[in-house]
Design a protein that fits this description.
Helices cover 12% and strands 48% of the residues. By secondary structure, the chain is mainly beta.
Length: 231
Amino acid sequence: MNQSIKTVLNNQGATVKEYFELINLFDCSSLRLSKEGELIFSIDFNTFREYKDVFEFSQKFGNAEYTIKKSDVKSFKAKMLEGMDTFHIVAELADGLQMGIFIYHTDTNTKVTEYEHYYEIGVEKLKEYLEDERHKAVMVRIRDVYAFEMKLSGIKEAYVAGDEEGGYSLCITDTLASFDISLVDDSCNEVYLKEGHTDSILIKPYGQPFMNIVIFVIKEEEKKPHLSVIK
């Protein structure tokens, strides 16, 4: 069991907010609202926020959200589902509604580890980075939390294209295919760089709340001007 989950479960005085805050440690959760066993509403989400009188569940890099008043939570309980890597929270709400939250893939805290040694650069800096002739993209990995994964090698082109309305697209071409992914504008996405012998760029594009794109880049050494000695 994940240590953060174990700590909250072992705390007899833990509040429902402390249980909801576990959502932010993991990549994907789902919310299901029902009444008398009939499903009314459901969303996949990855972010929990608390405001003055409200709890909000939403998709970072997406536009789906659901909010409830704090006073609507009448009671709650939680447990790990037996034989599954899933933490389940059930909250009884006002008007007889029941809210079930499922937090998936809790064995590893991916949100913490995936950012290690990265720093944020933004879309405009990414555009400049890929336009540098010394930076050669050699592989691209695309994956999501639903176990989809695709790797592209033999990259011919990797660049960011801008448009007249201030939006951007990430354009990738390899030996077999090419694709574009909208990055909207510089404030709606997250772009991170990790430098090393081979650089890696982590991109979380807006409109794809459960997708990660990683571009692996080899850097050529900067050529120094040749100095001749005049005798």
